[in-house]
Amino acid sequence: MLIALRRVGVKGVEVRKSDELDQISALIIPGGESTTMSKLAHYHNLFPALRDFVKSGKPVWGTCAGLIFLADKAIGQKMGGQDLVGGLDCMVHRNYFGSQLQSFETELHVPKLAAKVGGPTSFRGVFIRAPAILEAGPGVEILADYPVSSDKSSTLLSSDGTQQEEAGSREKVIVAVKQGNLLATAFHPELTSDTRWHSFFLKMMEDNGVESSFGDSTTEEALHEQQKGRSNDLPAGSIHKNWKRVEYLIIRLAIFVYSVLCVMVASI
Question: So what EC number does this one have (predicted)?
């Protein structure tokens, strides 16, 4: 994510302690293993500060596991559930699209993204053991959805650890939303060369009175890099699909190992 931010001329900083949230004007909660992230947030007492940050009106963007964190309600949790930051009026299914082996790429229809920051009305969505939004409140703006055909009716665990019966087959699920100062995507925009979701988030910062730190020359360089990189993108469903899946698994494994090591270090 930090590399993707540099492409649009913004220097990001990592936040590990609650007092560091006082020094930033916007926050991105990245993907990872949401249960492990929750345990680490508990250990470092981050939840109160994160909830206060969301309520402050400062822009917050959650991707994949970050989306789960921002949701008011989640199902498909592990036994015992997990705490959520909340603030986003929606119900999310933690692993809606299945295991690592069901990771995939697809073209998403994103006319609102294109209207805000330009570019085509499609975006390559990279889904890695991804969640999906099943229900969204009236104040939530839907930015992208994805058609589904399989019957996923099952008994699932909600965020408080209680069982809840999920609705049956659906025609589509929601994969990108905006609600006030909150942006959430079920996919990983940072794994493509298209930085428009990052630009969209910067627009949210500007709307919030936060000036971005890049100049015209940096913006032009970033756009040139983005356009050059797009030509190298593989079309969804290409013969390289399996290799891309292996890459997803390696990336996710690295994130998981890092999270486990953090828990081990924190426990010492």
Answer: 3.5.1.2
Rounded distance, CA 202 to CA 208, Å?
Answer: 10
Active site residue 224: no
User: What pairing do the DSSP bridges indicate for beta strands 88-93 and 71-75?
Assistant: parallel
Active-site residue, selected from the candidate residues 14, 64, 90, 240: 64
The model's pLDDT over 65-82, given as tens digits with 9 standing for 90+, comes to 999 999 999 998 766 567
Helix, strand or coil, per DSSP, at residue 89: strand
Among 141, 188, 211, 240, which one carries the catalytic annotation? 188
Q: How many CB atoms lie within 10 A of CB 186?
A: 31
Q: Given 90, 105, 190, 198, which residue is catalytic?
A: 190
What is the bridge-based pairing of β-strands 60-63 and 155-157?
unpaired
Distance CA 166, CA 156 (A): 7
Q: Would you call 190 a catalytic residue per the annotation?
A: yes
33 labelled catalytic:
no
> Going by C-beta distance under 8 Å and a sequence separation of 6 or more, which residues neighbour residue 179?
87, 88, 89, 137, 139, 140, 141
Cα 187 to Cα 66: distance, rounded to the nearest angstrom:
10
Low-confidence ranges of the chain (pLDDT < 50): 153-168, 213-249, 260-267
